[in-house]
Specification:
By secondary structure, the chain is mostly helical. The protein is about 75% helix and about 0% strand. The chain is built from 16 helices and two strands. The chain has helices at about 20-30, 30-50, 60-85, 95-110, 120-145, 150-185, 190-215, 230-235, 240-270, 275-280, 280-300, 305-320, 330-340, 345-360, 370-395, 400-425, and strands spanning about 5-10, 215. It is globular and about 60 Å long. This is MFS transporter. InterPro entries: MFS_2, MFS_trans_sf.
């Protein structure tokens, strides 16, 4: 069985159960800051910017959102397999990440700086470059991360670190945007201009750190992997992965619908103009405080119990959001703070479950990026569906019903997702293992 190794300068690779240092986690997780900047801009700011400042119809933006996510999913289908299979002098992960950073830097400025009346050809082309580059970074990096440890609790900690540093990136970005909005009344167009250049500059810097400081796990030359379609059909046939993918789907739909509609909720439905970024600061702050607690709790309890609690928490807060009065800034802030205490728990634990399943198969074949890719495909398709449908629903609502439609679009998917997730998690669990010997992920702790 191949030994999983990670080297940072002259550091030894972590043995089973050995705690990975925070600085090493921070260095490896640095690209997550880029991922978070792209996701936040794409899901929260871009739809409103393209509609309000570029003049594109919401229905067309909804199609763009869904199409971009579909492209992401197709790219992940190939990139997971390529990243596991193709050996180069620079490694299996690094060349694709470096190429992705270049494409992101090329695609971000024309998309986020599009002038009024910009053609859809320019918008779509820039979106393609941005999303292909994003996939080239996130899938190899995700597979690489699943190989960092052979200990279940350490994998939960690694995935928790990725979520935590993502929240840190959100906090810094939103803090800057909130200051620009509240102190200088900076327009949305100027915010997007700054975001475009920031992403273009940050992309190569964040990717360069893990490429320079870490060595990859070496794939044994005797291992031969199937073609991508056969490989992914094999992965989909594993009982251990299917409930995780279903949870990714329901979580992604709800998350994207809430993100795409948030600025519409704050500024249109609740008449809290120029408070968007400041309000979005609340949940990352609360989540950064609470997430380490949830991570420690997951080491003592079954993960499916923790997940059920986090989904129920989100659903209760979404229900309260339905009834926030117009211009009630304090009430909205309090609900967002409470909601933030359970924010990110789902992604942390779902990623750890994928890592567990991938690790079981890694004893016979290094499929880390393929496992990450298949979970990413499910998530991105769900996000495209959730974000696209949310924008379509808002575009179809008349002026009289617009405020109510925005509330429903923002809150109802989270409530429905919680119910669906709890049903999935409460299904009878296997007493043994699947055909490959992998323990059922819902009983791992």
């Amino acid at each position: 069985m191949p030994t999983l190794r990670l080297s940072l300068i002259r550091c030894a690779s972590p043995a089973s159960g050995v705690r990975i240092g925070r600085l090493r986690l921070a260095a490896f997780t640095l690209p997550v800051l880029l991922f978070q900047a792209i996701e936040m801009t794409w899901r929260v700011y871009l739809p409103r910017f393209l509609h309000q400042d570029v003049g594109i119809a919401l229905a067309a933006i909804a199609a763009l959102v869904f199409g971009a996510r579909l492209l992401d999913a197709l790219a992940d289908l190939l990139l997971g397999w390529v990243s596991d299979t193709v050996d180069t002098p620079l490694g299996r992960r690094k060349p694709w990440m470096a190429a992705g950073a270049v494409l992101v830097s090329i695609g971000a400025p024309p998309l986020f700086m599009a002038p009024m009346g910009a053609s859809m050809t320019v918008i779509v082309s820039a979106s393609l470059l941005l999303h292909i580059g994003y996939s080239l970074i996130i899938t190899p990096h995700g597979g690489w991360g699943l190989e960092l440890s052979d200990d279940s609790h350490q994998r939960t900690r690694i995935m928790g670190a990725k979520v935590w540093f993502g929240l840190l990136g959100s906090l810094g970005l939103l803090g800057i945007l909130a200051a620009l909005e509240r102190l200088f009344a900076v327009s949305l167009r100027m915010e997007m201009y700054l975001l475009g250049w920031a992403i273009a500059v940050v992309a190569p810097l964040t990717v360069l750190v893990p490429i320079m400081l870490f060595r990859e796990h070496v794939r044994p030359p005797s291992i031969k992997l199937a073609n991508p379609l056969r490989l992914y059909m094999t992965l989909l046939g594993k009982p251990a992965i299917r409930p995780i993918l279903l949870l990714y789907m329901v979580t992604g739909i709800a998350d994207a619908a809430a993100a795409s509609s948030f600025l519409f909720l704050a500024e249109d439905a609740l008449a809290l103009h120029h408070w968007g970024a400041a309000l979005m600061l609340i949940q990352p702050v609360a989540a950064m405080v609470a997430l380490p607690f949830w991570g420690r709790l997951s080491a003592r309890m079954d993960r499916h119990h923790i997940l059920m609690a986090s989904y129920g928490w989100q659903a209760a807060c979404a229900t309260a959001l339905m009834f926030v009065p117009s211009a009630a800034l304090t009430a909205l802030a309090v609900i967002l703070a409470v909601k933030g205490l359970g924010w990110g728990v789902d992604y942390m634990l779902l990623r750890a479950m994928v890592a567990d399943v991938a690790r079981e198969d890694a004893e016979t074949a290094p499929l880390a990026a393929s496992f990450y890719g298949i979970s990413s495909i499910a998530l991105k398709l769900a996000m495209g569906l959730g974000g696209g449908c949310a924008l379509w629903a808002i575009s179809w609502a008349g002026d009289e019903m617009r405020g109510l439609a925005i509330r429903v679009v923002h809150c109802l998917p989270t409530m429905a997702a919680a119910l669906a997730a709890i049903i999935i998690l409460r299904r009878p669990k296997d007493s043994g293992s699947d055909s490959t010997g992998c323990l059922h992920p819902m009983v791992m702790n």
